[in-house]
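Reopening this one. Same input as before:
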Amino acid sequence: MNYFIHESSYIENNVTIGENTKIWHFCHIMDGAKIGNNCQLGQNVFVGKSVIIGNHVKIQNNVSVYQDVEVEDDVFLGPSCVFTNVINPRSFIEKKNEFKKTHICKGATIGANATIVCGITIGEYAFIGAGSVVTKDIPPYSLVYGVPAKIHGIVDKNCEILERY
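Same output, byte for byte:
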């Protein structure tokens, strides 16, 4: 076991945790989740059943990564960003068979308090600004922000803005 789990965190069965990963206070990792190498999960992170998280992923405090969200390598999930998994939830209707897959591609950044509506793909190295509401697929290297989120430019792998519009 070459990883760190804070004593206040709860890890269910059949969870895979990669080398040098750190899981901090009050996290909950559900059954079947896979977390890669060199990841950091901040305080109060929830990882749903069978979620796959790549290598070198940073998940800041208060993020819930629900079932059917896939996070590739080198992704940054800012504090309190939000994922959904059902388009039209109702508390009195069971909709687990309507979960939609959400895919966060390699190197993408999602800013603090951004909301990612289910069923979309965020492309490689895209940058989603803080507080944005993302309702549709985002192309690779896009600079995106707003409510609803719109493309405002292009960034490179280092998150330098190459073009604004």
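So the earlier flakiness isn't reproducible anymore. For the record, The mean pLDDT is 97.
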